[in-house]
Each structure stands twice: as C-alpha cells, then as structure tokens.
Records
---
Amino acid sequence: MIQVTDSTETAVYRQQAAAMNEVLLVSAARQHELTGAAEALGAGYQSAVRARDHFLAVLSHELRNPLAALSNGVQLLKLAGTDPGAVARAGDMMARQLNQMVRLVGDLLDVSRIATGKLELRRERVDLASVVRESAEASRPLIERQGHELTCALPPEPLILDADPTRLAQVFLNLLNNAAKYSERGGHIRLSAERDGAGVVVRVRDTGIGISAVHLPHIFDVFVQVDTVWHRAQGGLGIGLSLVKEFVELHGGRVEAHSDGPGTGCEFVVRLPLAEPAAAEPAPAVAPSPRGPGRRVLVVDDNRDAAESLAEMLELMGHEVRTAGDGAAGVSAAAEFRPELVLMDLGMPGVNGYEAARRIRAEPWGAAPLLAALTGWGAEDDRRRTHEAGFDRHLVKPVAPDVLTKLIAELPRP
C-alpha cells in the first residue's frame, strides 16, 4: 500500500496553490474595480461629448446670427441705390454685427489663452472713469434696443489703476451686456464706482430675471449657462462671466455675484486695487487726424476682397496705396513702389508672409519700410515668429481704422 505523506514538496505545492487563489481573487476584485472605472470613464466621456456638441451647436447659432444680419446688410446696400438714409442705416447695422462677431471670436481666443497660460496684460496707468465710459458707450446700442435705462455714478476724483485698459473695458462691457440681455424690456441698469481704502469698488446692478441659489455658485464657471427659456432666447456662449472673473483676478482683484433669486435682479461687485501714487500724471496723448499727410502704403493679401477694401479705406484717408496678391508679388511691388508701410498677410500660397518679409528686409533700401503683419493669428508664438521674420508690428484682423491711423502717424517724416 502506498502512503501519501505531507512532504515538504507537497506543502510547497499547497502554498503555491493558495497564493495563486489569492492572486485570482485579487485579480477578480481588481477587474471589477477597473470595469467600474471604465464605466465611469465612459459615462464621463459621453458627458464630455454631449457638452462639446451642445457648445458647438450654440457657437454655430451665435455666429450665424451676425452673419445673417451682415448678409442682409449687403443686399440692403444693393437695393438702397442712392438713398443715403437706407445706406447709412445698413452700414450702422453691419458695423454693430461685425463688432459682435469680433467680440465673440476674441472671447473664444481669450478662453484659449487663459487655459494655456498665455494671456498677458499690457498694463498702464489709466483712470477708471475713462474705462467705464468706454464700456458704457460700447454697450449703449444693446441697452437702447432693449429699452433699458442706464445710469452711471462715478466719483469726481480720478481713480488711477495700474491696468490693461482693453481687458478692463471687457470686464465692464460684459457685465453691462449681461445685465441688458437678462432684463425684461424697460429695465434699469445702474453702474457705480467708489473708492474703498486702497482700492475701488464697481457695482453693476440690474432689475432683471435674477439668479437662483442653485446656479449662483457656478455663475463664473466657463461655458456655464443658466438653462432657462429666457437664456436660450437671448443667446450667448457662457464665457463672458468666466472672462470677467479671470481678468479681474489677473488685475489682483475679485468679483462677486449677488441675487435674492429669480425675478429679483442681480448685482455684480468688482473690487480692484488702486495704482501707487505717481509724481505727476502724463498728459493724455492727442489722437492723430485721420487725414494726415499722404503716405505710400503697400497691402499684400491673397484675399482679394480684404486687400482691395483695405486699400480703398486707406485711399479715402488720403494715402497712396498699391496691392499685391501673394508674397512674391509683394516683394516685387515693394522694390518698385518703395512703400513707407507694408501691411502683409502671413498665410499666402507660394511665398508666405514670413519669407516675403525676410526678402524685403534683405533689399538695399535707402529708408526701409515699416513692416506690419496683418493676420488672423494672434497668439504669443505667432507674434514671436513675425518678429523673428523682420516685422515691426503684429496686427490682428480685423484691424480698426484708428489703429491704422496711429500706426501711420508713427512713420518717420519723409
């Protein structure tokens, strides 16, 4: 008879079997955890996809509205003939809608710059009152169309900030437009400012639809929208208030939102630090006249409509203008025309704007022209590349007439 004994070898086998069973149990538990995590990730992914699709749908809607108005304006100009009133009304409407599109695209780019840490403030000493007045003037068309009343209460003393006036104006413009959009027709909007110790407090109060206690803590989150029929009717991407918060905090301040609930209106409170006292405030610069001495300007852009419309505007301002449709033609035109200013697009077929700028810089000029990149690309990396290619300025499309006027005023006298 064979007797089975619990030898050392058998004991080792049993230990290995027990260890294997434990590994299998742990693996099964881990697999269960991974399955749950995968399901959670799947649910999160689906939620992100739905949020993306919703945002793209809203973005499409917001872009199509001004595009439709601009298309209508073009037809109105064709039908108006010699009626100066109709032409003026169509032109004013198209300017408003174009500004709306510029603000929309600018807000989207600002969100991207903030997310990547590439947003930089261009600080200067600025009087709060001038920034507030600029914002109020920019928001006035929307406020008047909605039938609202706007009152501004500013202290008589100057409140000097160390701030980026463009970003700060966006803060108050977004708050005023927000108040106008979410107040029933005939509402009242009040903007007030006062000194508070070493800082200033700006309040924007409206008599609008208000914010519920559920939504109030999230009102400054990016892409957050209060989901109401009223909100959907008014439109918006849900990024305006998030930019307000980011811009205020970049200036060393903070912003708060207050509301007692639906139907009670809202109050937004912006707190900003005052600038350190200066020995003397510089005198404000005098804006150059749009019709100064005529200068020679070369416009290089493969978009024919963009080039010819810009050239016509510059000619109406009293300047001598040539156009070129690509980089190679721009280099040839520069050698022949000898411009004092070159406004050049970057993304052109064949010889692009960067290479054209390098070739123009290589020419033996008596007095080299001022080279300005005129492009839709406006990130810091884009500005660095244009500087390395030899450009003196980097202008982002669409460029405002006053920007061109100031740029031309910088040209040296012949």
---
Amino acid sequence: MTHFPVAPAAVADVAAAVGTDPITLADMLRVANSPGFERWQEQVRRTGGCANPIHLSGHSRTVDTLTGEFFEYSTSSEPGGRLRIACGNRRASRCPSCAWTYAGDTYHLIMAGLVGGKGVPATVAERPRVFATLTAPSFGPVHNRPDSGRCRCGTAHPEDDPALGTALDPERYDYAGAVLWNNHAGALWQRFTIYLRREVAARAGLTQVACKAEARVSFGKVAEFQKRGAVHFHAIIRIDGPDGPDTPSPAWATVELLDDAIRAAAARATVPLAPAGRFPARTLRWGTQLDVQPIGALEDQADITERSVGAYVAKYATKAAETTGTLDRRIGELSELDLHPGLPDHTRRLIEACWDLDADYPDRLLAHWSHMLGFRGHFTTKTPRYSTTLGALRGARADWRAQQERRERGLPDLDQDDDTEDTTLVLAHWEYAGQGHTPGESWLAASIARNIKLNRDTAREALASMPALDDAEVWT
C-alpha cells in the first residue's frame, strides 16, 4: 500500500487548505508517492498540461537503413505502462491547454491571410479586405443594454447581468425558429457566399465566368454564440487575383465594392424550409444587424487592425455555446437536464425545443445537437486559397518536435543536407489504452498547466515589450 506522508486524520484539514476534497488529496498523494512520478510529470508537461490526455500502449523501433543503428521505445517502461498524448480538443471548457494550441494555430492561419507568411505573400495585405459580421434575425424581444441605457423591461442591466439575452416574454419567444435557424446557419452561409460572388461580378460589370478569370473571393470565418443563444458569423473576406493571394486583385476591386456586394448578398440569401409535421413552412434569412469594417490602413482606412482581427477570431475558435450557460457535452436523454438545476431557463427552453422538433425534422439531428442549441456546423472554416491550413501548421510543429527528439538522441537533423534522402525507417505498433486522469492526477495536471501558462504569459509580456518585434509573432 502506498505510504501517505500526511496522517489520515489530517487529510481533511490539508484538503481544505489546498482547496480540494479528501478523496482527491488522497489520490494526489498516491500519485506523488508512486514509482515513476517524475516521468509522469514529464509526460504531462509534454502534453502542455492536457486535462484529458489519450493513453497509448505499444512500442516503436527507429532504424537508420544505411548504418543499421536503431533506437527502440516501449511503453512498458512508462508509468502504468502508458504513454500520454494531448487530446487535441479545441474547446477551452474541455481542455484549456489544447484549446490554447488550437487558438494559436487559428491566429497564425488568420494572420497569414491578412499580412502574409506561412507560404502566403506579404502583398496579400494590399488586397481589398473587410471584417464582416452576419447575425441571426429576431425571434422575440430579449433583455439587452441599448444605447438609451434602459432595457424594454425598464432596467439598466449591468454587463454581467445573467438576464441579458433572455426572452422578455418566454411564452411568446420563437424558440423553434431560433434552433432551426442555428441548425441551418451553415447552409445560409453557403447561400450567402454564392450570392456574394454573383454580386461582386455584377458590380464589376462582368459575367460570373469573366469575373472568375479576373478575381477570386476568399474568406476565413468563425462562429460565435450571442447570449440569446443565436449563432452569428465573423468573417475576413478578401478579393484576390484569379489564382488567389499570389496574384494581384484587379483595379476594379475596392473595399467599397466588396462592402456593397456583401450587403446585397446578405439581403438575398435565404434557406426555405418546407412544412414538417406540426410546423409550417418558413424562410430563414440573415438579421438586419450586418456590420462590415475595413481592415488595416488600406485606402486610408484604419478601423480595425490585423492583429485585433486575428486575436478575435482565435479567441472564439475555442468556444462553443458557453455564453448561454448550456452544457458542453451531448445530451443523451432530455431527462439529463434535471441533473443541472442551474441551467438558465432560456437555455433550457432552447434545448427542449431541439428535442421537440427532432421527430418532425429527422434529417437535421436536432436532439443530437441540442447541447449546441441546434447548431451543427464547423466553428472555423475558410476557402482553400485564403491562407495556409491547420494541418500544415500542425505538421510543421510535429517536424520541429521530431528534430528536437533527434538531437536529444544524438541523431543528425533530417534537413542538414537537402540532397540526402531520409534513411530513417520507423516501425511502430500502438493501441488505445484509455483517456483522462484520476482525481489526483487531474489536480496535479492542472497545477502543471497553470505553471506552463504563467511562464508563457511572462515570456509573451517580455516579447511584446520589444519594439522591434512584429505583433504577429507575439502569440507563442
């Protein structure tokens, strides 16, 4: 049995002092006193303090086919016979450390499409580009903070008032319309992009075929939930030459033309829904709150900077519907809501609407996506030629880490001679062996994650204070 350095009678007092419960503390002491604890810490640090790591068991052999030298690795020597790797979840509510990595990748992806880099030419900054926000229509009056200062209910709500975004009259609020709109928001965005290309061509005085030969519309976007539970989209939209960012945009392509085309396309785009069971036909469309802002200093415009846009998109790339107080996991049965008495009534009604509509719209999987209030699209998307890809960024990071590993083992860098073929052969066998932490491991991993974040924030502040450093490089 593991020896605890703390007497059992004192465990409760110590647990209260460190802000945890006795069971977690006892498990934490077990982990800390287990053989291989230092190696376990190293594994967790390598995952960035992942909150829900994936466990693998197996072995690998790395062979130099020219010299015959080889290196063998097996998880049999690891704590518990397992190797822990990061879960890679993008949601900050599920794994803050992996979400931070995802946000960083998203930031660099967006920035590459704004200022160049990662294989995108710097001249991309000269293209007409705007930051557009498209929202959902009204489904009924909600508590808000208007410019007048007072809501329709007569209250001047503070910014953190939980009533904000909730229905003034829940019995008359169109909850069915709200979740159906969320559910079809991806299709509505697709219709918008089709009309946008048509509107750009029309304003250039060209046919669609002729316009495609002169210009290409590119975008990168992120979805965000408003407090009322309706999703909306933020998008960087850019006009390039016919072959994308490598070619200059035509002379007729201006910010003003792009702005006008976006507004016209948003007004035209609709998604008609046929009658379904108890529910009548309806037409889904964008709301009237449409915002289009130039980015950077193009044509003497400086409304918003490239860095602020990149940071904004990266921030919301790691979120879901948390602003509404909804659950961050799928709901298997509607009765599960009874286990969450703190769930806001407005959010509960949206979830219940998804389940109520599910049988009438069986192909829309509304109950399956009820934890997302009906939304089933991707939170971040882009056109192929907007910039680099998340896969390319992850591949570059994996290559960099592989080079680090080779140096630690005394092996030569793979790129030390471009004319030399890679003679390394890797033979491996891996099996899934579980996921997550025990309560004590979770507490310790969270502590490691906090230390990593503190060191990262300190380094970022130091880098940001260097005037010669480009803002786009201060995400690491």
---
Amino acid sequence: MPAKSALRRTLAVIAALPLLTLAACGYGSDAKDDDTAKVAAGAKKIDGLDSVKIGYFGNLTHATALVGANKGFFQKELGATKASYATFNAGPSEIEALNSGSIDIGWIGPSPAINGYTKSKGTNLRIIGGSASGGVKLVVNPEKIKSLKDVKGKKIATPQLGNTQDVAFLNWISEQGWKVDAESGKGDVSVVRTDNKVTPDAYKSGSIDGAWVPEPTASKLVAEGGKVLLDEADLWPDKKFVITNIIVSQKFLKAHPKAVEAVLKASVESNKWINANPDEAKAAANKQLETDSGKALPADVLDPAWKSIQFTNDPLAATLNTEAEHAVKAGLLEDPLLDGIYDLTLLNKVLKAAGESTVDDAGLGVK
C-alpha cells in the first residue's frame, strides 16, 4: 500500500475513535452545571426541547463556552430548555459525540472540523460561528534551543497526530526546508505526539525539548522554565487565525434552528462581555475550569495565556481554508471539498440584531 494511502487510513481510524484518555462516561466528561445558570420565572422551552447538549474543551481557547456556561448566558437564552455540558480532551472524540447525538453543538478546533466534514462527505456538521483566534506558541528549553534553527534535531511535542497544532508545526517544519515523516514524526525534527495534560511533565523530565501547543499548556511550560520561541500568530496576516469554531449537527440545525440561534446569541453575548470585562472574564473562565476539572489555573499560567487569545465571532474562514491546504501539503488530508462547511445565516442574523458587523464565509458557505 502506498505510504500516503496508509497514512490516510491511519488518520481515518484515529478520527473515528474517542481517545482512551477520556473519562469513561460516554464520549466526554460531563461538566457540572453552574449555580448561576438559573431558569428565569415563566421561561418557556425552545423548540419544545428539554435540553441542548453543548461540548467544549477545558482550554482557555474555548473560553467563550467556559464563560457562557459559568455566567449563565446559555441558560438565559435557552429559557426553560436546559443547557447541559460535556467536556472533551480531543477533537476526534467530540466529532464522534456530535455524530452519535451525544452533543448537539460544540466548540472545536479547525482540523477536527475539517476532518469530520470531509470524512462524512459533507453530511454531518456545519461551522456556524467563530470563537477565538491565537493562543498557540512554540515553547522550548532555552538551554537546548536558542534560535529557530536550533529546533532541527530536537524533540518537539504536539497534542495529537493530525490535530490543528500538529498540522501547523509540520507546515512550519516544511517551510524551513526540513523533512519529517508525518505519520511517525521522525526526521529532521522528532515530532512527539503528547497529550496536553502530560506535556508539562514530559518537559520537566527532559523527554521533550519543547512543544507547539495551545494555551494554557504553553504558559504552563513557561512556568516550568520554558521560553516562547515563536507565537503562531506572527505567521498569519493581521496575526489572526482560527483556533476555535462553533459546530452543530446538521440534523439538529435543521430540526431546531431557534435553539441554535439561542446558543449563538449567548455566544455573541459571552464574547461581548469577555472583551468588555477581561479581568472578570478571565476569572469566570478559570472558575469554570475548576468546576469542570477540580483544578484552577495559577496566576502565573492564567495571566499570560489569557493575553495571547483574541475572542471573536468571526470564524476567520479564509484561514481555515489555508489550514486545510497545510494538512494536504503535509500528507495528512486528501484535497478536501469544503464547499458548504459554513452556515453563518443565524450568526449574521444575531449580529445584525446586536448592531454588530456581519462575518464572511470565504465562499465556503451553504449555497
């Protein structure tokens, strides 16, 4: 079997299975409902639904969802329809949860959204909004790596084979003129796929020399003595690139547009509140992380991590298309057909009602 075909088959298997590191309760861990999310007196159910199931990661790059849950924005807009939550450690498991109906709407990175859409031949999901830009860094051991050229020959971690940061790092390696086998991670740089929860310990033990990772993992490494060698935002026009999207099951979108609109309204309200109240929002996101995982982030990790993330309703669709091209270039994805991956109709309706600028789908919207 040709190497690329074998690699794509491997990635298809990876994308189809939940990671073993997930808690053993379905596809993700149930997030605890916050006491602030009270149902208003006289509120009615939306679309007759008892609940809307929302998924997100325990990452600061998913702070729109963290804050929306903690401050009760989702519950407020959903009325008597319960906002329920599930947290995930990786994109493939969240896509599987969406496909199975375990969640209805999710916050997720661009690579799993692209993979999920292409593997279903455009039938399982739509990207319905943006959430965050930035928050990804190459952090290294300053005693071993003093310049970008010193990365050659070193062991650098990424979160998972084929995930958003893995694709970005492989593309950067290629642009340096270095060679790496994408599947094995072996070559001029050793790409070590390591769960973000394990990466700080791997760094402390010396088993890796650095990592290309999202926040707050990047700032955790800095707190352990690492140095930021490169901020991925510096590689993009206007320093903006999508790191978190909002996706929805196409089946749920068709059957329950009012519920989807309510969640999007809450997301827009969350981003507006985050940008107007950055210190309070940072604390609210951290409180939700503590509620979900039992552990809050210390200030020396939380503060620098928060500063590197921009919260936006714009899905930055043109950058998603570029990220797909990077995955193709790395041999991780066949040239994808992304037409129809976006449906920003409801988001733009919400933005217009809020007096905010509408956003563009870069020609990849539903026709």
---
Amino acid sequence: MTAGPTRGTPPVPANRSTLIRRAVAAAAALPLLALAACGYGSESKDDTSAKEKVAAGAKKIDGLDTVKIGYFGNLTHATALVGRQEGLFQKELGATKAEYATFNAGPSEIEALNSGSIDIGWIGPSPSINGYTKSNGKSLRIIGGSASGGVKLVVNPKKIKSLKDVKGKKIATPQLGNTQDVAFLNWIAEQGWKVDAQSGKGDVTVVRSDNKVTPDAYKAGSLDGAWVPEPTASKLVAEGGKVLLDESTLWPDKKFVITNIIVSQKFLKAHPKVVEAVLKGSVGTNKWINANPDEAKAAANKQLETDSGKALPADVLDPAWKSIQITNDPLASTLNTEADHAVKAGLLSKPDLSGIYDLTLLNKVLKADGASTVDDAGLGVK
C-alpha cells in the first residue's frame, strides 16, 4: 500500500498571516491522537541515489520484495535520514528494496503501522506508548533506540524573559498527545499552573501546530513560543527566538529518549531476518554518524532537502545538530517516566508497558559488532 500525502499542512497563502492563524487555531482543535485524515504520511520522492540502489547480484531476504520504513523530517530522526542517504539500510537489505514514507507527527505514523502502510518506523516515545496500550499490547514492539535530546522551549524574548513569563502566553507543540506535547504539559503542571490537556486552554494556551507551520506562525505573531524538536527549534531561533529551556536539563544525565525504532509485531514475526538487517543498518549508521559528525550532518541535510525540497541553512543546521545525541540505547527507563507524564497530564490511563520492548535482535547485532548490549528496564518480552 502506498502512503498518501499528509493532510492538514496548509499551502503558503497570499494572505499568509491570516491563514496561518486559522491553521494554528484548527490544529488546536484536534482530538487526542488525531491522525492526518486518511493520509498515512508522504511517500518520499522517487529520487534514489546511487548509494540507495540495489547492488548487482544481491539477493532478497526471506524472498521479500520490499520493506516499508517511516520517519520524520526532523534531525532527531538523523539515523533514518543518514542511513537512507548513505544507502546503509539498502546495503544490509540486499535485493529487498527499502521504501520510505515521511511523517510530521507520531500518531499518524502509528496509524500507518497499524494499517500496514509501513513495517518499521523511527518515532517518538509517546506515540509508541499510546500505540502499544491502545492495541492492548498487540500492535508494535520497540526494537531499538536512535536519539536523545534535541528538544527546546524557544520563545519571543520581547514577550518572555523568564520561565515564569510563560504563564498567560501562547506556546506551540507539534500535535496533541505527541512526545513534546506531553513533556510541555508535564512541565506546566510542575510550575503549579493548570491547563486542560484536550483544549490546551488554561494558565498557558497550548497550541497544537504542525512543525512546518510553527516558524511562520511565530514570525506572524500568532505564537509566543514553542516546545519543539530540532530543527524547528533552531528555525525559531533564526527568526529571533531565544532558547529559554533545553529539555535535556530536566533529565538525569541529560539523557531521555526522543526517537525509538518500532516494528509491527506481525512483520517482526513474519520477517525477523529483514528486521535484523534494518537494525544492522541502524547500528552501522549510528557508528558512522558518531565517527564522522560533519559528513553525517551534511548527509542528513541532503536527505531533508530531497524529502522537503529545501536544505537547512547553516545557522539552523549547526546548532540543531549539536543538541542531539545519537545512540542505539532506547533509554527504556526514561520511557516509563514519559508514560507517567502522560498519565499525570490526563492523556493516558496508567499503562501496562510489559512487553513493549523486544531488544533481542538489536543486542544480537551489537554483540556481533563488539558493542555493549542495551537494557529494556524490565519492559521486554518475556
């Protein structure tokens, strides 16, 4: 099944600021885990690089023609961006062709996974938790980590000079129930302020706004700031915003999961060798990124340009890249904490996350590579 275009991202209008405000207002009315209408993400452009092409004489894994992979156009999904651009997934997959779809937020990617539009995806922790619990533990498994950090609260310095000034202001998050939305709602509660999680109204107005729209909405004055991932955070800084808070400072050791790798349980059971090949590609990509940060940064930006039609300028790319830590470790203990945050915010009933992880194949790949294995914090498949 081919993933269709994501709905809900408005075109650039003639009367830009007016329609941006309408788009932001419409985003605020989205129900919990609202999906991008019937679209399950945007099919990546058919712009196969030489590195992505199937090598001559390569064989299919398990006789499978294709594996469908999803990711976001965010630098927090650097593993997927770089692995695709450098052909590192395709290299491990042989003649089983990697096909890709891009998404703007996690809930729509979960819907794509559930529908079979994708098989494997890079995604944030909150959608992973919601997808798992709403399916009674039957839809997905988290099979690896990818990134930590890369999330910031960026504000208009003319309107907000300190953390206490956030009260009474309009602050964007990417989508109701997504990872940054949950983190911001939790932070608001820790300040002693009250906000209705569903409507976003209260002591702070939480505006659910697509990352593609947020910088323009901020520039137009419709937003006072945003709690967002990279590179959106650095785009706001380039528009005159100021980083008021880096979310990593709120976590022990400044580490928290921002991107996981998930797989459909059905696909994992049917094609474990294909899943293992993708994980080999992921581990190899992460190793290459950490050994070659400048080349990896350029590769990620090139893939973003292919996917969106526009590369990031240096004043956005450089600070954004520095704030992200690439890791194979899913940082499972922080997933539990993020689930607790969603419960406190009223977005989720207390979840049973037992079995959400299956790190068997990842640890097999890590051992073969001479790397340290990773832990599931007691939430693995028994």
